[in-house]
Write a structure and sequence with these properties.
The protein is mainly alpha-helical. 77% of the residues lie in helices and 1% in strands. It contains 20 helices and 2 strands.
Amino acid sequence: MFFKLSDLYLLAPEASLLLMALVVMMVDLFFKNRKAVVWVALAGLIISAGFAVSQALTLTGTNKGFSGMLVVDAYAIFFKLIFLFIAAVMLLSSYEYVNKYIKSSGEFYALLLFSTIGMMLMASSSELITIYIALELTSFPLYVMAGMLKRDTKSAEASVKYVLLGAMSSAILLYGFALLYGLTGTTDLAGIAASFSKIAQGNIVVLVADVLIIAGFGFKISAVPFHMWAPDIYEGAPTPATAFFSVGSKAAGFAALIRVFTFGGLGAVNNSTTVIVLSIVAVLTMVLGNVVAAVQSNVKRMMAYSSIAQAGYILVGFIGSFATGRSEGTTAVLFFILVYAVTNLGAFAGIIALANLTGGERLEDFKGLWYRAPALSAGTALCLLSLAGIPPVAGFWSKVFLFSAAWSLNQSWLVIVALLCSVVSLVYYGRIIKAMFFDKPAKEDRLVPTMGVTTALVIASVALIVITFAAQAFLNVASPAASILFK
């Protein structure tokens, strides 16, 4: 493999974040100053974001480096900025929680940065082996983060389940990649796409490879029936880690899934059959996620099933683009993922704040929260309303754009199922809001959330309001990022 010095610029966001992650470990080892660790980690994210913005301003089209294994385009940069935003909000919202419940705080933040690097590489990789390595770099830190509540048996159980199911899904994904390599003789996505022009329709090996890849990535995005890890792991893991799983891991999984299927040209063979498989997965994911979430009493577990349901909505938009080869569905998907990341982070910031103040994460612990912490309740409710798709909040526009695009791409029956499932989601999001605003509080005291989680919730709420009033502008940013995959 050969590379040029200019390739290092393409890797600058990841390389700079890696260096800062190592500095975080050194600061934690020699100085034992938790605030310094957080500030260094935050500085690393800002520097990395600066490089990503610089690339967005100076690079055009598709730029490949390291013998084509790394690709930097509008699509990759869009996701990189989302991942960095997610990590920054998590740093701010998790400080007090980590300080209170997790002894190895430096390791927690270093693992968060390492996983973020993996997510960024998943969005930028255009070669199967590189994608797989990036996925493992994303996953291994998450396995450890899930088990960092040392004295909590549920946390240990979450970590073990995550490792075992993650290993199984990685093996399935790798088998699918191996079949693609055996068929085409290359691991480069562009080369795979070119090779498919010589493969006849109805090739059963291609179909098996598609199904295995869907299963492998299905674990990362918690799509049914590959969702079995999500509820127990979300409930048992530290709440900041759960929030990171619910948005970062899911967004990274979709970033890689969409690039593999579109850039790799997997729709060229057995398109209709693969669309049927994806449609079945989408319907099961939407229905099970929403119906089971409606009967949960643990808020973290409820949010786990909510996250599963959201993955189903995203699949609806992706299926439309995959089936037709048009970018409108993927454009709506990118906008939906952006809105989902902001709103879910805000909702979890509220849950983290509640856990810090009361030590509880069940629905009854939210009763009367409006009387005890008005600002916290208002911010959390705003994010929950967005997740439910209530107008005029950004979540409403993300669903409008997504379902409209899918409808125009001949996926009307999937859109109808998604709309019915969205109605069901009003039940469980409404239960949380009802408990906060209409139920009698357990105590008559005032709860004062800490500065870090308050800042995180304010950032998420402000970002949500900005996106609400500038939805079309953000959609216009997502459009070239999606379109570049279809050229």
